[in-house]
Known about the structure:
The protein is of the alpha+beta class. It has one domain: archaeoglobus fulgidus dsm 4304 superfamily (archaeoglobus fulgidus dsm 4304 fold), CATH 3.30.2170.10. Helices cover 23% and strands 23% of the residues. The protein contains six helices and eight strands, in the order ααβββαβαββββαα. An eight-stranded mixed β-sheet has the order 3-2-1-4-5-8-7-6, sandwiched between helices. A hairpin with a 2-residue loop joins strand 6 and strand 7. Helix 3 packs across helix 4 (153-161). The relative contact order is 0.17. It binds two DNA strands through residues 73-76, 79-80, 111-114, 116, 119-120, 141-143, 146-148, 152-154, 167, 169-174, 205-206, 211, 248. InterPro entries: Endonuclease-V (IPR007581). The record marks 111 as: Interaction with target DNA. Belongs to the endonuclease V family. DNA repair enzyme involved in the repair of deaminated bases. Selectively cleaves double-stranded DNA at the second phosphodiester bond 3' to a deoxyinosine leaving behind the intact lesion on the nicked DNA.
Amino acid sequence: xxxxxxxxxxxxxxxxxxxxxxxxxxxxxxxxxPFPGWDGSIAGARxxxxxxxxxxxxxxxxxxxxxxxxxxxxxxxxxGATTRAAAVLLDAxxxxxxxxxxxxxxxxxxxxxxxxxxxxxPALLHxxxxxxxxxxxVMVDGQGIAHPRRLGIAAHxxxxxxxxxxxxxxxxxxGHFDPPGPRPGDRSPVLHQGEVVGMALRSKARCNPLIVxxxxxxxxxGAVALVLRCLAGYRLPEPTRLADRLASRRDxxxxxx
DNA sequence: GCGACAG
DNA sequence: ATCTTGTCGC
Length: 257
């Protein structure tokens, strides 16, 4: 299924997928064709990343008072054959969930460091389509611009949808940082090739720092401020934490025993 | 050549 | 990511 040139399997199911609602924005691509122009190769994927990264603008351009925040994450089933994408919409002020969606689609790409979005973005876009209304802000489990070519899955999501997006990862993909202070809120810049591409944020005491990096329409400082606003006593911000629980079949309602 | 390597 | 119970530390 992977011959080095065509690593991505285009499937019938994807071809007849439902079109994206018109609530997303002018920059959006359809969930059925997430990577227009991609030839399916590794080199082509990297080239597309460089091209899309050039479209990322880090000027804050979100609603004055975001009313909703969405969290996205992915998990796997059937030994990896099925990709589970979770999308949770929360009230930005109370952080209470308003909508929760879980979609299952066939896995079509293996995990390749630096090309995570080519594996998980399609499923995330399908999950996004389930929302009854577009979120004011998006948070994705993964890197924003803290990526070798400045297009982690969060940044890619933002470019693909036109929505303001923030990346929150549990670990670093590239670059380095000095350990931030021990108290919640302490932070230390993430550097890569001489550029500040993110912030290692101590979101909770005695926990490893969260790697925060912006996607389109959000600045680095803005991303940190938004993440801080979404914290509720856990290392991960609520949007991503709830999506993670839903995608990883660890959701309270789905557990027995 | 060697080490690193989101999820 | 995923396979998996209890356990050490705060």
